[in-house]
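Memo to structure team: turn this sequence into structure tokens by end of day. - J.P.
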Amino acid sequence: MASLTIRKLDEAVKAYLRLRSAGNGRSVEEEVRVILGDLIQGRPETPGPPQTPSPAEAAPRHRGPVPASGSSRVTLIIGGGIAAYKALDLIRRLKERHVRVRCVLTAAAQKFVTPLAASALSNERCYTDLFDPGSEFDAGHIRLARECDLIVVAPATADLMAKMAQGHADDLATAILLAADKPILLAPAMNPLMWNNPATRRNVAQLARDGVATIGPNAGEMAEAGEAGVGRMAEPTQIATAAEQILKPAKPQPLKGKHVLITAGPTHEPIDPVRYIANRSSGKQGFAIAAAAQAAGAAVTLISGPVDLDDPAGVDVRHVESAREMLAQVEAALPADIAVFAAAVADWRVASEGAQKLKKTGAGIPPLQLTENPDILATISKLRETRPPLVIGFAAETEHLIDNATAKFARKGCDWIVANDVSPATGVMGGDRNTVHLLTRGRDGGVDVDSWPVMTKEQVAAALIDRIASHIKSSPA
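Reply from structure team:
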């Protein structure tokens, strides 16, 4: 057996010398990789000059769509947790964004998902073993660390993060991470007690100091019965969006160094322990503005009423219920350079909240005495010392849109008003599209109205942030 191996190696070296003398233009490293790869995988070396492959043989073999030339590349390390099943959806979400994905599964991850599933979804070979002779004959873990634009770890378990923080490299995943010279994005997932353990907190802090980015974890129900809290892996769409932001070429950040304060969503004003006054605001427009401001380089504080939306990545989100709680959080978040009040704050609340559920009685409907809620937009607009230089309000109207928005503009004391028609026929409340009119103060002391076309709420947000950036740039320092 030993003599056979030596003879094969001798044949491989001779074949290499023949190829080199033929001057086929390939580098020494590439030749060695090809020949040793053929040797290890049992493919025979045919003596003689290299043969030109047919077009069919030369064409790369892909299953599914061929990635666009120059597309971004991600090495996805799947850790060993129940959330590993979400990593399969993450592969699909990344490919939707034209990202090539190569997967690495830890030994524990293979207890939850299979290399075959990851390979089938990524259309790439899946890697599992640090000592795989098919890839490690030329330090394959180094190539997996370097031949990519981003390394994503999802789920990032407590054990995997601990190894990263301490510089361990005892398997393929940790060897890749230790050899990486590319950005790393972690999506932590674990039991809430593990996430809050001082050891995990130290490891997370160390990784942050090392420049490692994280997304999540989110709050919610755990896999274990009766367990809930912060520890759920961020959703695949959130991780893919965060990865996309890292992979994007650096763009101008016109709001870098600015603090933007945004309110979003409805408020819930309690009547009794089970009932409340509310409205149909979804919070989508405010959340879109927060994401656009963050992408423009701003430090963003988003104060949100009750909504069914994922927190935007990179944004400081503070969740509240009532108008009074929202005002308190707004005041606590000051000072700010720009404030955008997109929340649909309830105008009234019950003067005296019931301590117990109100019951039907023979006396008829129980009386509800209403009192006015604090006016957050007017309160902040009329501040003296801590008033943001640019205060923007929203006017959601169902009739006489421009007239009502103009009156609100004069009454509130803000700098701009974004007016939109929220009558039921428009579908704006809870929908994905919006038609807005931007009211600003004209040079003659009047009101200028700039009417925008129908756009998605994300497009409205981007346009508004562009307008804010232009205003900031043109304003005296």
